[in-house]
């Protein structure tokens, strides 16, 4: 497993803020700033959010690939923020996903994380939801298989554990799996350990995320903000053990979305997270991954 970071951690610096929760940091990053920071942190991999990059810029993707190769960074390409295919309601999004798949190929990514939807897009019926998603996902999958790129659908607060496992098993392709976000199923009121255990065998990418409960409406992100890994409710030792036991050898991409007040800024939280996960992987946190 390779320790990495997802560029969404610095979403405020790429110009996105959560209305009513976050403030603009007053400065902007480029993809080069992010890659320089990843290199400075000594991680082995990055997950690049396509929403912060232009689509189809061959000069840019070529330069990104060269920089990643120079830095020796494994890479995951990430498409679909914030709602992806809107739970199958916007099949026209396939055109954007296909264009992003070409960009993934251009930067040398072997895995592309995708989002099927979000909390606000999921239908009441799983049968309806699944039937809406399958035709579009299968079309995207054919293109991914031709490029030998694995699609990893995220549990993006839109799919319960049974649903995402059913989706992957129904599609039944070695080029289709899960981007396992360690925290999102708790945000859907599921037991995170059971969710992680069930999804781990199908993991092809990850978001290593820790959260806590602040109070208020539990159906909002304000209730479940991110915190540095190891300081929240997610048993990350269990998560990494489950992934390792399932034979996962991909990227452990630390991600911070809405950082809880009182935990400093994203960079400080990220440094704490990287240190904690490194100690877990080394077996130097008491009682963890020994």
From TrEMBL:
Protein name: Sugar phosphate isomerase/epimerase
InterPro entries for the chain: IolE/XylAMocC-like, Xyl_isomerase-like_sf, Xyl_isomerase-like_TIM-brl
SUPFAM superfamilies in the record: Xylose isomerase-like
Lineage of the organism: Bacteria, Pseudomonadati, Pseudomonadota, Alphaproteobacteria, Hyphomicrobiales
Keyword Ribonucleoprotein: no
Alphabetical UniProt keywords: Isomerase
Domain Xylose isomerase-like TIM barrel: 36-276
GO molecular function per UniProt: isomerase activity
The species this protein was found in: Mycoplana rhizolycopersici
Pfam families associated with the record: AP_endonuc_2
PANTHER family referenced in this protein's UniProt entry, alphabetically: BLR5974 PROTEIN, HYDROXYPYRUVATE ISOMERASE
């Amino acid at each position: 497993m390779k320790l990495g970071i997802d560029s969404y951690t610095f979403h405020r610096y790429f110009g996105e803020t959560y209305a009513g929760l976050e403030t603009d940091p007053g400065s902007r990053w480029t993809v080069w700033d992010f890659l320089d920071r990843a290199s400075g942190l000594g991680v082995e991999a990055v997950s690049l959010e396509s929403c912060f990059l232009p689509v189809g810029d061959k000069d840019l993707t070529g330069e990104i690939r060269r920089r990643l190769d120079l830095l020796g960074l494994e890479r995951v390409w990430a498409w679909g923020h914030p709602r992806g295919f809107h739970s199958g309601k916007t099949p026209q999004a396939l055109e954007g996903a296909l264009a992003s798949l070409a960009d993934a190929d251009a930067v040398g990514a072997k895995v592309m994380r995708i989002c099927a939807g979000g909390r606000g897009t999921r239908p009441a019926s799983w049968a309806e939801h699944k039937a809406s998603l399958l035709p579009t996902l299968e079309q995207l999958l054919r293109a991914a298989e031709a490029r030998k790129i694995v699609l990893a659908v995220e549990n993006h607060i839109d799919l319960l554990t049974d649903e995402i496992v059913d989706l992957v098993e129904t599609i039944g392709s070695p080029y289709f799996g899960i981007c396992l976000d360690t925290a999102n199923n708790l945000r859907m009121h599921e037991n995170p350990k059971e969710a992680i255990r069930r999804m781990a065998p199908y993991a092809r990418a990850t978001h290593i995320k820790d959260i806590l409960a602040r109070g208020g409406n539990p159906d909002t992100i304000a209730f479940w903000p991110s915190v540095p890994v190891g300081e929240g409710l997610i048993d990350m030792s269990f998560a990494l053990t489950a992934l390792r036991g399932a034979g996962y050898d991909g990227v452990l991409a630390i991600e911070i979305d809405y950082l809880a007040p009182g935990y400093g800024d994203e960079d400080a939280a990220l440094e704490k997270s990287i240190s904690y996960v490194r100690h877990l992987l080394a077996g130097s946190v008491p009682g963890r991954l020994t």
